[in-house]
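Risk register update: the risk of archive-format incompatibility is retired. Evidence:
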Amino acid sequence: MKYNRFKPILPVAALLMLAACAQPHMAGKESWRAQTDIPDFAADGRLAVKMNEKGSYANFDWTYQNQVQTIDVNTPLGNTIGQLCQDRQGVLAVDSKGKKYQAATPQQLSEQLLGFALPVQYLHVWANGQWVANAPYQLLPDGRLQQFEWTITRSLNTDGTPKILLLESSRLTLRLVFDQMEYARNADAATQCAAR
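Archived output:
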């Protein structure tokens, strides 16, 4: 008889338990390690930038192949707003009209195009749970990493791939939410930015 009293809430309880299991978990201090070779990957998801209480949102496609990092920023409908690419020759961006922009560093380029400096050249390192080699860093008690005036938080899926990468500075916040990240080497991948 007692079972019948709880029977209506069992499906709800089961759904809540499944949802809890599916939530990403915060990566602790032990998940960060010194920089080594970064494996090739392809990822996509959504990004949000917040500065002075104003936010911008977009989707992203991100590849890191043959040490060439390419980030396409897209509208929710899939149209490419712009592309940022870094290779051994430097960094360049291409807008939706095909106009190319170049600068000496990724920070200078993002400052020129967006009005704020993003640490683009380190994103693939931090997303993979590493601190940038040969640079000061600090691991905070709550498991976050501090480096280059950024505080970095990672949330992971159960398979260890990143679910959320959150970067916070005194000026802005950058949040990447990954729909998927697959580690695979593309033997046909270019060795320089396609826009060159």
